[in-house]
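User: Hello, can you help with two protein structures?

Assistant: Certainly.
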Amino acid sequence: MGDCQFRHDSAAGLWICTQCGWVYPRNSAKPPRRNCPNAPDLTPVYEEASHKLGVTLVDVKHYGQAIVTWSKAGWPTRSQEEVERIFRQHCKPCENNIDGRCKLCRCCVNTKRIALRNKIKMATEHCPREDKPW
């Protein structure tokens, strides 16, 4: 389900969805955000995009949750030495590491210094395996 697509009726001061006809009665500068019952199903579009990009919406959700946790904690990072040790001892030899991406959580795991590109660098994150080696 997608969002309503609004047009503004400036004479009446209303926002009207062009797909379902729902009316937002308040005169505001921006239209509201609302799930539209008549919006086209975007699942095929999402599936095609995820196939092309090599990531799914679930991958994006997991990454987003990691970023939120990390930001709420104040953006703590591990030292570069610790990142390299974790990668060398745990991630690199792991059977779930496929070309620098963890097969379990689909996050990037490497020795890069930029935390947004490396789950190991985020001090709030841990290995998704049950035994949690780091």
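That covers the first. Now for the second protein you mentioned:
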Amino acid sequence: MPKRLITGFIVLLVLGGIFSVPTLSRADDSLLIAPAVLDRKAKARDILNETIVVANTTDHALHLYPVVDNVAAADGTRSFDDPSKTDLSTSLANWIFFTRGLIELQPGERRTLDLRIEVNLNAKPGMYHALISFPAGNTRPEAEAAARNAPSLAVNLEVLDDAKEILQLNNFNADASFFFRSPAAFSYTLENIGNRPLAPEGSIIIYDGGGREIGTGALNPEGAILGPGDKKTFSNIWRPDVFRFGRYKAYLDLHYGNTTARLQDTAFFWMVPWYVLLILLIFLTALGFFVANLVHRRYALWHHTRVRAIAARSEDLARRLAAVPPPMPPSTTLRPATRFISREFRAVPAVQKAPLPPVQRAVVTAPPPRPPQANLVAAPAPRPPRSQPPAPPARARRLTVEAGPAETPIRVIDIEHYLA
């Protein structure tokens, strides 16, 4: 009986060794990973490219299913959060890009794997830890169940502080140059050109014309936050205790961020009460009437003076024209008469030598001109055109002469030439 039992047991062991299916190793000490620890430093938006080597030191194949978990620095707990539900700015496991598919290693096989770490653009400065485990199993659930005891690679990443806290003040001014009633309004535009959300703070200080501080107003009382790339226009008002006329200065003093950076600017404006405006309007109207009246009087005086001067010059010109002899008739009609007059007065010496008063006028009637003689050169008379009737005979000429004292020549001052 005992022999039969022993023989049956041996047969079962042999059959089991022949027909049994070999199982995968859990790879506790059978998997070599290099490096075992990866320590790196980076800034937000940085990308790190690394390589790791895994080697199968066993004599059988290994089926590995990599798993990546975050490791808490406080208690060492491991976790992997869904990217759609976690804060990506603090999850190192979600920054690691590594194959999570099946890795099959044959006995003695070494394989190089690529690992990429993309630091989130909003990553907060600090130290982060993650663990890349290589559990073995026939299926992923079986491998993940043994992940805590599987060989692993520790990743330690320090995110350096690369904060850029920069606010840009695009403009600051009063909503109007003149305020005719309270309150006075101001506006300013801020733009966040850094990579950190910022909440501006500060105040607007009001100074009068003498440089005395007379009021303040808080900036961004709602506590609005400007994210990276955001641009916003803020408004503030100031209600003075007494609305007085004058020129005022608004001084903007703004600070933000952990470094308490400051922005400053000034704007000027006027405050004009309605009664001051009314007085100014009345004064300007009266001044306008006065200036208009003065200009009109000056113009009227200048105009009258100019008219008198023109009239005086006209009278003087009229007197001069009256003293000038009338113009002589045309030369075509004067040549015969002039020669006749000269000839006739030379032929009558009694008339030339007769004593006359110093200023005396005489009218001498001369006969019609005679035909030219041989010793005189007469101008040829123009022939009338055939189509015109012959010219009528010339009648007597009337001469007006002026005689001076005796023994002085007679001067002809007027000739009246009458034709039929």
